[in-house]
């Protein structure tokens, strides 16, 4: 696993946005897997700036969701479809037809999960998947003890995750849905490049366990250790628990400029 330690979230956002831009220069119709929440916002802002400055053409890019709440009404501002449209698709000037996501309002949610997995495969697979990490080590909504071979499916959120997400629902945990559709860990691992961004001291323990701890279903993000091209970008606060932090700094500093992440 490649670990890059950056000064702050803005630097992490710029680094990852440049990796996405480089991918689009090589493959203009790349399928970009996006995550939601506050952590990836600097990535989307930096990539949108590159598009606005004509540093990269994103007009043929495709975007797919990592997860979606179950049961929120269509058009709810905190549905992940609405969030991705607002924070990624519109700023990049993409057509909504370029956007793929699971149907969280489907009558048959299990069938919708299978359909989304199939759609990702038929689209040629995800070229670059952005990930965040929960304080308990979850990725997507694959909570602790999720199968490392899991596919897209419905999951019940833990109380801690609902507490963490209440900030997006006016601080009212009662508004936070109990269930989500999430790409499974097995589905996530099929992406060609995984890029996880973590910032802040609250994520330090989870990052250390995912990067340096044993492979364990208790820490779903540790599954990135199995991937041939996984990059973990962390700020200094999130890197505080890494025993090999100095090694990671030296390794990245010694990389050729053209190699990227």
From TrEMBL:
GO molecular function, one term: glucosamine-6-phosphate deaminase activity
Regulation of this protein's activity per its record: Allosterically activated by N-acetylglucosamine 6-phosphate (GlcNAc6P).
E.C. designation(s): 3.5.99.6
Annotated Gene3D superfamilies: 3.40.50.1360
Pfam families cross-referenced by the UniProt entry: Glucosamine_iso (PF01182)
Site (Part of the allosteric site) location in chain: 146, 153, 155-156
Keywords: Allosteric enzyme, Carbohydrate metabolism, Hydrolase
GO BP term, pick one: N-acetylneuraminate catabolic process
Keyword Hydrolase: yes
Protein role: Catalyzes the reversible isomerization-deamination of glucosamine 6-phosphate (GlcN6P) to form fructose 6-phosphate (Fru6P) and ammonium ion.
Family: Belongs to the glucosamine/galactosamine-6-phosphate isomerase family. NagB subfamily.
NCBIfam families for this protein: nagB, PRK00443.1-4
Protein name: Glucosamine-6-phosphate deaminase
Native source organism of the sequence: Streptomyces pristinaespiralis (strain ATCC 25486 / DSM 40338 / CBS 914.69 / JCM 4507 / KCC S-0507 / NBRC 13074 / NRRL 2958 / 5647)
Gene encoding the protein: nagB
